[in-house]
C-alpha cells in the first residue's frame, strides 16, 4: 500500500507555508525529480543576479571537490524561494515563454471575433500550448464562449460567491485543497461518490458546478511556476456508480464545456479505490479527454481507508471552511498576479 499523496508535504495553512520543516526531502533532490531543469536554472540565475548571491554549481563542486558550506546554503535558500508559494520568483517568465505569449497576444488582438485577454492568460496559454497557435486560439474561443454561456466574470468578487456555492452543491465533495512542497503544485482531492450529478437539474446548478470548477482550477494555477509544474488531482472512487455520474450526457457536457478547454497541465491524476465501474468509465472516456490528461492517470491507488476519514478533520464543517480559505487565498494571489503582470 502506497502512502497517500502529499500527506507529509501539504502545508496545513498559510502561516505554515514557508516552514522548511514541512519539506520531506532535500530541496535539491526534489527539484531534480520534479522540476524543469532549464527553467529552474534560468530562474535561479535571475535570482542570483538580482540578489547578488554567489551560486553554487553542483558540477563544478563535484569536479573540484568543493564543500563550500556558504555557497551551499545560498543555493538551498534560492531553491526554498522557488518552492515557496508566496514568493515573487514564481512569476519569472522565460524568454521562450514570453516570445510565445506575445505571439498569442498579437493573434488574439488581430482576430475581430476574440476579446483581448490579459498578459497573464497569454503566459498561461504559452506554458500549456507551446508552439501550437491553433490549439491556443481554440482554447481562447471556448473560454470566451464558456464565460458568456455560464455568466462567469472571472474576478475575485465573483469567485467568493461561486466557490462558496460550489463547495455546498454536493456535500463534502471537495475533501481537500492544498499546496504540496514536495511537488511544487496544488492538490485538489475530490470524493466522486459525493458528486451526485443527478442533482444538476437546473441551469443555475450547472452554472454553480462548472463556474466553481473553473475557479478551483484558477486557484490551482495562481502563478507561472504552478502552471509549469501542473496540478495534482486526487479522486476517492469508492461508492461511485453510474447513477452518481448522471449518465453519458452529463459527463459529455462537463468534458465539452470545461475540461477540454481550460489551459492547465496535470502532474498526476490519482484514482483511489477504483472498482469495476470506475475502471471501465476511465477506459471508455480516454478518447474524449485531452492526451495530456489521460497520460497522467494513475488508477487503482489504495489507502487504509476512505480518503474522507483523513481529510474531513476535525469535522466536515471545519474541513470545508479550511478549503474555502485556502482556495480564496490562492485566488487572491492569482488575480493580484494577473493585474500586475506584463510581458
Write the layout of secondary structure elements.
Layout: H1 27-34, H2 37-51, H3 58-64, H4 69-83, H5 95-109, H6 119-128, H7 133-149, H8 156-169, E1 174-180, E2 185-191, H9 203-220, H10 224-229, E3 231-236, H11 242-245, H12 247-259, E4 266-272, H13 276-285, H14 291-294, E5 297-301, H15 308-311, H16 316-340
Parallel strand pairs: 2-3, 3-4, 4-5
Antiparallel strand pairs: 1-2
Helix pairs in contact: 2-4, 5-6, 8-9, 8-16, 9-16
Pfam family, one: CRAL_TRIO
InterPro entries: CRAL-TRIO_dom, CRAL-TRIO_dom_sf
Domain CRAL-TRIO: 184-295
What do you see in this structure?
With 343 residues, the chain is α/β, with parallel strands linked by helices. It has three domains: 17-84, no CATH class; 95-149, no CATH class; 156-340, Phosphatidylinositol Transfer Protein Sec14p (3-Layer(aba) Sandwich), CATH 3.40.525. Helices cover 54% and strands 9% of the residues. The protein has a five-stranded mixed beta sheet. A hairpin with a 4-residue loop joins strand 1 and strand 2. Helix 2 (37-51) crosses helix 4 (69-83) and helix 5 crosses helix 6 (119-128). The protein is globular and about 50 Å long. Residues 6-66 have low confidence and may be disordered. It comes from Seminavis robusta. InterPro entries: CRAL-TRIO_dom (IPR001251), CRAL-TRIO_dom_sf (IPR036865). This is CRAL-TRIO domain-containing protein. Residues 184-295 form the CRAL-TRIO domain.
